[in-house]
TrEMBL record:
Gene3D superfamilies: Regulatory factor, effector binding domain (3.20.80.10). InterPro entries: Reg_factor_effector_dom_sf (IPR011256), SOUL_heme-bd (IPR006917). Belongs to the HEBP family. Pfam families: SOUL. This is Heme-binding protein 2. It comes from the Eukaryota.
Length: 185
């Protein structure tokens, strides 16, 4: 359903391999987390299975709510649907498997459905602020965190597909708990 400058999408249950980092900068946190996750997909897991690349890649960002605290970043690679519950366990203790129920997201659209190119940290933040403003009055949208999402490999320079996601909790019939997203992984 398309609403103003964002849309809502329902996604099925999914399994993700994730890792987290704290820090002042998305850029600094991203490199190490991507390396860990990529290593997992290349066979550094208990079964030694090489996984095909899947998309999207997402980064959950839990912004710092004070002057001196670090932000929390959680990067996740989607596990191929055919593995589902059979996802191989990681050998790296900094990685963990997340099984997520079906979720509804509100998604920031730019250039029809998303924004392209290689966004800077400032670009991501600007897009997240725009989406937060668009859904400001929607009491079912979780506003304490957001996701940056990309669909293309890092070496693809042009025609990239990028989005901002926020979770919409309509199934419970209760407004979003805006403090729940501040839990640390």
């Amino acid at each position: 359903m398309i609403i103003m400058d964002y849309e809502e999408r329902q996604y099925p249950a999914a399994t993700w391999i994730s890792t987290s980092a704290e820090g002042p900068s998305l850029t600094e946190a991203s490199q190490e987390m991507y390396r860990r996750l990529f290593s997992y997909t290349q066979g550094n897991n208990l079964n030694g299975i090489v996984l095909n690349a899947t998309t999207p890649v997402r980064m959950r960002i839990i912004p710092c709510r004070g002057a001196t605290c670090p932000s929390m970043f959680i990067m996740s690679f989607l596990i191929p649907a055919e593995l589902g519950e059979g996802a191989p366990y990681p050998t790296d203790g900094a990685l963990y498997i997340e099984r997520e129920p079906a979720l509804r997201y509100v998604i920031k659209m730019w250039d029809s459905r998303s924004f392209g190119g290689r966004p800077t940290e400032t670009d991501w933040l600007e897009q997240a602020h725009q989406l937060a403003e668009l859904v400001r009055k929607d009491m079912y949208v979780e506003k304490s965190f957001y996701y940056t999402v990309w669909y293309d490999p890092p070496f693809q320079l042009f025609n990239r597909l990028n989005e901002i996601w926020m979770v919409k909790n309509i199934e419970s019939g209760k407004p979003a708990n805006t403090t729940e997203g501040t839990k640390r992984a």
